[in-house]
Amino acid sequence: MADVGAVVPISRLLVANRGEIARRIIRTARELGISTVAVYAESDVDAPYVHEADSAIALGGRTSAESYLDIDKVLNACALSGARAVHPGYGFLSENQAFAQAVLDAGLRWVGPSPEVIGQMGDKLSAKRLMREAGVPTLQAIEVDVRTDLAAAAERIGYPVLVKAAAGGGGRGMRIVEAQDDLADAVASARREAAASFGDDRVFLEKWLSSSRHVEIQIIGDTHGNLVHCFERECSIQRRHQKIIEEAPSPAVSEEMRQRMGNAAVAAARRLGYTSAGTVEFLVSGRDFWFLEVNARLQVEHPVTEEITGRDLVREQIRIAEGEELSFTQNDLTIDGHAIEARLYAEDPVNGFLPSPGTVVAWQPSAAGGARFDSGVESGSVIGSEFDPMIAKVVAHGATRRESASRLARALETTRIQGLTTNRDFLVAVLRTPEFLAGDTTTDFIERVDPPRSREVSRAERIDAAMAAALESQARRRAGARINRSIPSGWRNSTMPMERIDFRIAGEDLSIEYRARRDGRFRVAVDGGERLATAYACGEGRVDMDVDGRRLAFAVDRNGDTWLVHGERGGIELEEQPRYPVPGLEDAGGGLLAPMPGAVLATEVCAGDAVTKGQLVLILEAMKMEHRINAPRDGTIGELHVAVGDQVENGQLLATLLDP
Prior knowledge:
Layout: E1 12-15, H1 19-31, E2 35-40, H2 48-52, E3 55-58, H3 71-81, E4 85-87, H4 97-105, E5 109-110, H5 115-122, H6 124-133, E6 141-144, H7 150-157, E7 161-165, E8 175-177, H8 183-198, E9 203-207, E10 213-221, E11 227-239, E12 242-248, H9 255-272, E13 276-285, E14 288-295, H10 302-309, H11 313-322, E15 338-345, E16 347-348, E17 354-355, E18 358-359, E19 362-364, E20 372-375, E21 382-383, E22 390-398, H12 401-413, E23 416-418, H13 424-431, H14 434-437, H15 445-449, H16 459-479, E24 499-505, E25 508-516, E26 522-526, E27 529-537, E28 542-547, E29 550-559, E30 562-567, E31 570-576, E32 591-593, E33 598-603, E34 610-611, E35 616-622, E36 625-630, E37 635-640, E38 647-648, E39 653-658
Parallel strand pairs: 1-2, 1-4, 2-3, 4-5
Antiparallel strand pairs: 6-9, 7-8, 7-9, 10-11, 10-13, 11-12, 12-15, 13-14, 15-22, 16-17, 18-21, 19-23, 20-22, 24-25, 24-31, 25-26, 26-27, 27-28, 28-29, 29-30, 30-31, 32-39, 33-35, 33-38, 34-37, 35-36, 37-39
Helix pairs in contact: 4-5, 12-13
């Protein structure tokens, strides 16, 4: 490693991460004239970031432990590629002291804080002790080990308590416990998840404040003693302890409070000798705040800070690793307007926000509102069950908070993302609630406000989408005709019945009948009425039509028997029904089905066991988190079709449940 203070330019940078953050780092490195190296697991072989890097090294393996968490494999990739520096992004090895030290010991540059600081701050309990010594208010925490009396520790803190991973973040290894009966299971589950995500199963208990704000201060420092804060971000809107909407600045932080929190964060960081980018996180209630943790890395939500300050934090990280001074001082920083970020996930809000992996059949970011898209996908990308289900971060900047929220909602609404279930419509609903617009954004927002989990699609909107799919279908058939291609679609020299196509939309059947007229227009019959449609364009994935004087435009694609239609208010999926009954389709009733692909982590019942509604049957692990599969009703387990370690697909039969 070069001496502190010496400027050593980085010529080739290895990004020890994947997805959107890998693309984000590659983009800035390229702007700085730095060659980039990607690493990838087996399932990421065709991921966009792999193709965008200047070179890529296969790590092998499918799971995190077999790939992105394997220090020896990542260091070997550095040697193979000739990379002279490593940027870890966030998650995976970004807060692993041993990895940071190994990078430096190999004579490479580490784009992040020192291993010593990572060690101190990566351990949440150690960080709390240091903050107390620095005079920063903290919540009481008790480490859990084999000697801990769990019941006594929880009583000392007071219910509800939060079980929290000592070495992690991002919602992994966290459980809220309301009563003693649930404590032991929560600790055991949190330990397993922490070990799988961070390679460290230590957990601790902390007081859970159900209604507060999660506010964090962005800090950044160089090796020359310059250290600043870049104001605050609020990240209170969360599900499963993971943030889904972040904003800067916080609507609840006054200038006086901003100064107090900023000064506390900088003082703590200075005591640590902090360098590179990091975040000091606080819980806020009224004018009071308590230290939560230091994230010794770049945060997922860093773009909102970049938008209000006009500073590229990844650029500063790289320059600091090269030995340069910060390119700005505290006095250079001002807040320009307001920025809000929404995390677009492959998950189902209607089904408890469970992950919903699948293929992104259609992806087209919206141009509305001038939003920034940090995405890890493109059309055809697969969101697998091995890793985090994030698809993209969408960020809108405006002169005011309301303007920023409006821009972001519209950008999300008009972004085309089809082929799998996402939280897009839920995010739009959150951004448009009166409570969000009023800045009433505490950590219990989702439970308290209960925004709609999905978009209500009217019958009229379904009919418009079905007409678009029908016109696209007939145009494609006409274009694929081998004979009489010059004859207009639907032309007959006699009166014939209308063409018919049947769809199912969200469990509702809808039939469209149509006939081409000699003037090129279409007579369409639906719901007992008739419409006159003019197709200005169709057949190539875009339908531009006039229906009784209304001009409508849709993007339309077919995926098997499903038509993916995207219009002005969002996407609709229509399942085309067969013209004749298909034999062999039967209802697999009486079974407990997998709600997502994953691995069977534990089974809690055997064949012949009587179960009650809500009783735990088995635990699935998917996208680095545990998911409890409970009995939907009272009954008897007729047969258990899976065992621990089995990989299961979405909808696979897990157990047969017989009547009691």
